[in-house]
Amino acid sequence: MKAKVLVSRAVFPEVIERLGAHFEVDYHDVDAALPPAQLAARLADKQGAITLLSDRIDAAVLAGAPGLKAVCNVAVGYNNFDLAAITQAGVMATNTPGVLDDTTADMAWALIMSSARRIVSADKWVRAGEWLGWKFHDGWFGNDVHHATLGILGMGRIGQAVARRAAGFEMRVIYHNRTRLAAADERACRAAWVEKEALLRQADFLVLLLPYSPATHHAIGAAELALMKPTAHLINVARGGIVDDAALIAALQQQQIAGAALDVFENEPALDKRFCGLDNVVLTPHIGSSSRATRMSMAMLAADNLIAALSGQRPPNLLNPEVLGA
Ligand code: GLV
User: Fold this and answer.
1) What is the pLDDT of residue 325?
2) How is the chain split among helix, strand and coil, in percent rounded to 5?
3) pLDDT per residue over 72-103, tens digit each?
4) What is the value of pTM for the model shown?
5) Domain residue spans in the chain?
6) Which residues pair with 6 in a beta bridge?
7) Average pLDDT over residues 204-220
């Protein structure tokens, strides 16, 4: 008999086909999160699940799904998982690292450039018919990216991919991470480790690439923003909640920093509407990994993890090896 698995929201038909060769698939073929009660109800008789970052998997959900053996997130971040509760329940948890690094690093760069050169505001202004003649002192001065200092907070795979791209702009690259990279990795991305305070004070472009957890909640708040240069730009392609959005709004309103570009927010998609009234911030809807090819790779990797987990193999991206007694 085939194991029963849930796919919690719309992915790609190719992924469902692949899963269908191994499992009886209950597919919520809608690109919207299942309400928590429905998610719990549909997991009740399942051995495995493909979940998205909008699905909360915690002790209450697990209590109602006694046969569950694996939850496989289609994301590198897994703050939608209560990993301790999942491990306690003896359920394997997986994520999708690696396959989205370059696409997300590209997005960080798109946001760096947009914020530095005010691309979104300029586009709106042109469309509004406000451009009446070319000017030299045109009021559209931006900040240079080339030869500036790129600061990266959170130097995992994506941070390193962002850093490598800085070579083309001949930038100085500094980073802060709990653990310092090996010397060879620092050389490969031409990046120097600094204390967090030095990073905040020196960066012209500060890119956040931390995972979200209680330890990184509001890692950037009023005190940190106050240390940044008035000409600096803050870029967040990691997770909402790492930045205190209310503090950032105040800093942008007072032009305490030059600008921000945000792909993620606290309480997304219900972001603080005050962002929308500011022209020194670029806003995108959590699309860091969103190229078709990358989203396909992520979903396929989650499927690989689930197939391995339910066929007695160790899934390639197991987050809690202790459930295997390893
Ligand atoms: C996307 O936000 C991810 O964590 O993969």
Assistant:
1) 87
2) 40, 15, 45
3) 999 999 999 999 999 999 999 999 999 999 99
4) 0.96
5) 3-99+292-324, 101-283
6) 26, 49
7) 98
326 pLDDT more than 80? no
Q: What is the pLDDT of residue 300?
A: 98
Active site includes 239? yes
CATH class of the structural domain 3-99+292-324: alpha beta
User: Dihedral of CA 7/10/11/15: which sign?
Assistant: positive
Active site includes 286?
A: yes
- Please determine whether the domains at 3-99+292-324 and 101-283 fall in the same fold group of CATH: yes
| 150 in contact with ligand 1, CB cutoff 6 A | no
- Find the farthest-apart pair of alpha carbons in the chain and give their distance in angstroms, rounded: 73
48 pocket-lining for ligand 1 (C-beta < 6 Å): no
Classify residue 231 as left (phi > 0), alpha (psi -120 to 50) or beta.
alpha
Using the mean position of ligand 1's atoms as its centre, give its distance from the Cα of residue 213 in Å.
14
97 lines ligand 1 (CB under 6 A): no
**Pocket of ligand 1 contains residue 39 by CB under 6 Å:** no
CA of 265 to the centre of ligand 1 (A): 13
Domain 101-283 sits in CATH at 3.40.50.720
Residue 134 CA, ligand 1 centroid: distance in Å: 41
> Helix, strand or coil for residue 158?
helix
Query: Can you give the pLDDT at residue 182?
Result: 98
Query: For residue range 254-299, what is the model confidence (pLDDT) as tens digits?
Result: 999 999 999 999 999 999 999 999 999 999 999 999 999 999 999 9
